[in-house]
Design brief:
This protein is an alpha+beta fold and about 675 residues long. It has 17 helices and 25 strands. The protein folds into four domains: about 120 residues, Gnk2 domain, C-X8-C-X2-C motif (Killer Toxin P4, Chain A, 2-Layer Sandwich); about 110 residues, Gnk2 domain, C-X8-C-X2-C motif (Killer Toxin P4, Chain A); about 90 residues, Phosphorylase Kinase, domain 1; about 230 residues, Transferase(Phosphotransferase), domain 1. It is about 35% helix and about 20% strand. Strands 7-8-10-9-6-11 form a six-stranded antiparallel sheet. Strand 13 and strand 14 form a beta hairpin. Helix 4 packs antiparallel against helix 5. It starts with a helix and ends in a 12-residue tail after the last strand.
C-alpha cells in the first residue's frame, strides 16, 4: 500500500510538471478580442469554433514540420477561420504544447469573441468570422509592442543602427523562403567585444514573399516608436513579427537543425534491426525491472522539480523586465479588494488639506495622498450631487478597475461612506499636459519627439477604451488637463472611469446629460447630445492641434479671420503653409513629415460629419506607418458657423442654447467640464 501511495505521488508530481512545462512553453504575452453578444455559447458559430480549436490542437503534431496550420468550419455567417503558427526555432513538442494550451486559454480570455488572437513566446493562435488566410493583417487592435525597460548605455545611436540593419536583413531573408516553408530567419550581430545583438523575424507561411516583406517592413517601422535604445524589443502583428535582444533568446540548436543536411554518402545502409518488444527483458546477470524503475523515477522527478523551479525563475525575470503595451488586467478584482475606509483616505490626504489639493474639475476635487505603506495616490472626491446610486457606483468602479493599459491612469479603488463618493487613482508625478503645453516657462521641455510620443500614446489609450478593453468606453471629456504625464513624460488618460460605459455591441447613443468641455466637444454631441466613438475622435483632433501649436483652443485669439484654433489651422493648411502653425519653441528640432502628418490627422478628426472622421485604429496605424494614404481633409466643423450649430447665439464669452421647452443653459468658455446641460 505504501508503494502504491508513493507511485501515485510521483505520478501527480510528473503531471504537475507537464502542466507547468506546457504553460512555460506558452508564456502568455497579449491577447485581443473582438466581441459580439450574438456569439453565445449555444450559437452555431460557437459550435463551429469549438470544432476549429479541436482541429488546430490535433494538427499541432510532430509531423507538422513548419509549425503552421489553418482551416475553417461552417458556412456563410457561421463560418469560422483559424490558424496557428509556432516560432520557427522551437521543437515540434514545444509547438504542440503551446498550441494545445492556447486552444483552451483563448476561450477563457475571449469568452464571447467572434474574432480573437492570443500571443505567446512559442506560438500565436487566432480565429475570425472573416477569411484571414494568406492576407497581411496589421490591425492595431490585434497588434502590440513589447519592450525591455533597460536602456543601452553606450553608443545608443550605433546600437539602433545595428538593430535596424539586422532586422532589415532578416525581413529580406524571411520573405525569400520558398512556398510551403517557414518564413523565418535569425541574426547575430556583434555590438562590441563582449555583447551581441540577437534578432528574429517571422511571417505566417501562407503569405506571399511580397506580402511577408511588406508586413515585416511595417513592423520594423514601429520599432523606433516603442523600443529606441532599449536592450530588447518586439513588434507583433497577427501576420508577422520582429524581435531583438542582447541575450540569445532563440534556440540556436533548433535553428541549426533547420539547415539542410549534407547529401548522403552512396554507401549502402545496413538493414534495420527487428522491432523490439515494449517490455523490458531481464538481462542475464540480473538487473531487474523493479531496480530500473527505482533508478529512473527519482531521476525523472528530480528533473521535473528542477524544470518547475527554472520555469518559475524565468517567468519572474520576464515579468520584471518587460512592460507590455496592452495589459488587459486578468487578475481577480473584487469590490472587497478595492474598497478603502474613509478614515484611511482622510489620513492619507491630511483630512483633505488644501496643501494636498492638486486641482478641481467638473466632477470634483483631486488631492494627493500617501498611504501608510508609503504609496502615493491621487484621490478624487466626487461632487455629492452626482445622482448615482451606491450599487451602481460600486459596480462601475469594479469594472473600470479591471482596465489596464500603459496609457491609462490606473484606478486603485474607491471609498463609499455616507455621502462621500471617492475614487483612488495611481499618482502620476508630472501633473497634466496643459501644465507644460500652455506654460511659457515649461513649453520648451516638450520637444517634438516628446510631443509625437504623447500623441501616439494618447491614441493607443483611446483605441484601447474604444475597441480592446473588456468594455466599450467613450471618454467624452478628452482634453489636455485630463492627460497626465509620468516621470518619463508618457501620457496617461485620466477620468475615463467617469465616462458612460457602453455595452460591448453599442456604438452610439443619445443623452440629455452632457459631460465635457466646450471647445473639445463635437458639434453633434454639444448641440444634440448624440455621442459615439467619433465624439472622442473629434476631441482627440483638437488635442493634436493644441499639442502642435502650443495654443489653447478654449482661449484662442488670432487676428485675420480665424475665430478658433481649428479654423486657424485649417486656414494655413488650405493656403499651403501648415508649418506656420507650429509652436515657435520647437525651432528646428521637429520632423517636417511627422508634423504635417499629425496636422493632417488632426484636421480629419475634426470633420463635421462623424462618418468622415477616422477610427482610432486607423489613427494609430497612420502614426506608425507612412504606407497609409490619408484622404484630403475638407473644411472642418467650425463651431461658430457650422450647419449643425446655426441656433447658437453669441454674446461676449458666453453662448446661449435654447431647448424645446424654452429653458436656457449657459456654456462658459473655460477649462471646467460641463456636467449638466440639456441639449435640443
Amino acid at each position: 500500500m505504501n508503494s502504491l501511495k508513493f507511485y501515485v505521488l510521483l505520478l501527480s508530481l510528473l503531471t504537475l510538471a507537464i502542466i507547468t512545462l506546457a504553460q512555460e512553453d506558452a508564456n502568455y504575452l497579449y491577447h485581443g478580442c473582438q466581441n459580439a453578444t450574438t456569439s453565445t455559447l449555444n450559437s452555431t458559430y460557437r459550435a463551429n469554433l469549438n470544432l476549429l480549436l479541436s482541429s488546430l490542437a490535433s494538427n499541432a503534431t510532430p509531423n507538422n514540420t513548419i509549425g503552421f496550420y489553418n482551416t475553417s468550419f461552417g458556412q456563410n455567417t457561421d463560418q469560422v477561420y483559424g490558424l496557428f503558427v509556432c516560432r520557427g526555432d522551437l521543437s515540434n513538442s514545444v509547438c504542440q504544447n503551446c498550441v494545445t494550451f492556447a486552444t483552451e486559454d483563448i476561450v477563457q480570455r475571449c469568452p464571447i469573441g467572434i474574432a480573437s488572437i492570443v500571443y505567446y513566446d512559442a506560438c500565436i493562435l487566432r480565429y475570425s468570422n472573416v477569411n484571414i488566410f494568406s492576407k497581411v493583417d496589421q490591425s492595431p487592435s490585434f497588434s502590440f509592442s513589447l519592450l525591455n525597460t533597460q536602456n543601452i548605455t553606450t553608443e545608443p545611436q550605433r546600437f539602433n543602427n545595428l538593430v535596424g540593419a539586422a532586422v532589415n536583413d532578416l525581413a529580406a531573408r524571411a520573405a525569400s523562403a520558398p512556398p510551403g516553408a517557414k518564413k523565418f530567419a535569425v541574426n547575430k550581430t556583434a555590438f562590441d567585444a563582449f555583447q551581441n545583438i540577437y534578432s528574429l523575424a517571422q511571417c505566417t507561411p501562407d503569405l506571399s514573399s511580397s506580402d511577408c516583406n511588406r508586413c515585416l517592413s511595417a513592423a520594423i517601422a514601429g520599432l523606433p516608436n516603442c523600443c529606441s535604445s532599449k536592450i530588447g524589443g518586439r513588434v507583433l502583428f497577427p501576420s508577422c513579427y520582429i524581435h531583438y535582444e542582447i541575450t540569445e533568446f532563440y534556440n540556436a540548436t533548433g535553428v541549426a537543425a533547420e539547415s539542410p543536411p549534407p547529401p548522403p554518402s552512396p554507401v549502402a545502409l545496413p538493414s534495420p534491426p527487428p522491432p523490439r518488444s515494449a517490455t523490458i527483458p531481464e538481462e542475464k546477470g540480473g538487473v531487474s525491472t523493479v531496480l530500473i524503475i527505482a533508478i529512473v523515477i527519482p531521476i525523472a522527478v528530480s528533473i521535473a522539480l528542477f524544470s518547475m523551479c527554472f520555469c518559475f525563475l524565468r517567468r519572474a525575470r520576464k515579468t520584471r523586465d518587460y512592460v507590455p503595451e496592452n495589459d488587459v488586467g486578468d487578475e481577480m478584482t473584487t469590490e472587497e479588494s478595492l474598497q478603502f475606509d474613509l478614515s484611511t483616505i482622510e489620513a492619507a490626504t491630511n483630512n483633505f488639506s488644501a496643501d494636498n489639493k492638486l486641482g478641481e474639475g467638473g466632477f470634483g476635487e483631486v488631492y494627493k495622498g500617501t498611504l501608510p505603506n508609503g504609496q502615493q495616490i491621487a484621490v478624487k472626491r466626487l461632487s455629492r450631487n452626482s445622482g448615482q446610486g451606491a450599487a451602481e457606483f460600486k459596480n462601475e468602479v469594479v469594472l473600470v478597475a479591471k482596465l489596464q493599459h500603459r496609457n491609462l491612469v490606473r484606478v486603485q479603488g474607491f471609498c463609499l461612506e455616507g455621502e462621500e463618493k471617492i475614487l483612488v487613482y495611481e499618482f502620476v508625478s508630472n501633473k497634466s499636459l496643459d501644465c507644460f503645453l500652455f506654460d511659457p516657462e515649461r513649453q520648451g521641455l516638450l520637444d517634438w519627439s516628446r510631443r509625437y510620443k504623447i500623441i501616439g500614446g494618447i491614441a493607443r489609450g483611446i483605441l484601447y477604451l474604444h475597441e480592446d478593453s473588456r468594455l466599450r468606453i467613450i471618454h467624452r471629456d478628452l482634453k489636455a488637463s485630463n492627460i497626465l504625464l509620468d516621470g518619463d513624460m508618457n501620457p496617461k488618460i485620466s477620468d475615463f472611469g467617469l465616462a458612460r460605459i457602453f455595452v460591448v455591441d453599442q456604438t452610439q447613443a443619445s443623452t440629455n446629460r452632457i459631460v465635457g468641455t466646450y471647445g473639445y466637444m463635437s458639434p453633434e454631441y454639444a448641440m444634440h447630445g448624440r455621442f459615439s466613438v467619433k465624439s472622442d475622435v473629434y476631441s482627440f483632433g483638437v488635442l493634436i492641434l493644441e499639442i502642435i501649436t502650443g495654443k489653447k483652443n478654449s482661449s484662442f485669439y488670432q487676428t485675420g479671420g480665424a475665430v478658433d484654433l481649428v479654423s486657424y489651422v485649417w486656414k494655413h493648411w488650405r493656403d499651403g503653409t501648415p508649418l506656420e502653425v507650429l509652436d515657435p519653441t520647437l525651432t528646428d528640432t521637429y520632423s517636417r513629415n511627422e508634423v504635417i502628418r499629425c496636422i493632417h490627422i488632426g484636421l480629419l478628426c475634426v470633420q463635421e460629419d462623424p462618418a468622415i472622421r477616422p477610427a482610432m485604429a486607423t489613427v494609430v496605424l497612420t502614426l506608425n506607418s507612412y504606407s497609409v494614404t490619408l484622404p484630403s481633409p475638407q473644411e472642418p466643423a467650425l463651431f461658430f458657423h457650422s450647419t449643425i450649430t446655426d441656433e447658437v447665439n453669441i454674446s461676449s464669452k458666453e453662448f446661449l442654447l435654447e431647448d424645446s421647452k424654452s429653458k436656457s443653459v449657459v456654456y462658459s468658455v473655460d477649462e471646467d467640464s460641463i456636467t449638466e446641460v440639456y441639449p435640443r
